[in-house]
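Thread: quick sanity check before group meeting

JM: Hey all, I'm pulling together slides for Thursday and realized we never actually wrote out the predicted structure for the chain we discussed last week. Dropping the sequence here so it's in one place. If anyone has concerns about the input, flag it before I start.
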Amino acid sequence: MSQYFTMGEESLWNPSNGAARLFLRQTAVFEAELGLPSGLGPMDNDECQIDPVALGAFAHAVLEYHQRTPHAVILALSEGFTATLLVLAQRAGVEVCWTPPHSDQDGHLRDVQVSTRPPASLAAEPKTQGLRVKVRELDQLMPR
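JM (edit): ok, ran it. Output follows.
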């Protein structure tokens, strides 16, 4: 069995039940964390309608959250969800802004990783480079 994430009559993603359930649960976590609606409606009769405007705002907020944090564990936990969300957003016609934000709204860092040295994976490439690669890969793997 599978479920459909649709915009109008267009199917944007047709994942298995387990992948859809996990994605929607992670979406709820980020909605609560960011205080924003995702634009994903309820899963009714194996179909979830998408509001592209709300999805666009949510996707930009999640990407900005991912880009701003220097915390290695938060990055690891959020990367797969963020990449999946960005594929869905792009399929919904949302233009993704990959330019990292300049500063936090109040100028303070949140969730700072305390470590004696940064992980090699964070020092070797900008955060968005690996995320862009994952988005391209997932776009090929996510059935419509």
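AS: nice. The longest strand covers residues 40-44. The helical segments are 17-34, 52-68, 72-91, 120-124, 127-141.
JM: adding both to the slides.
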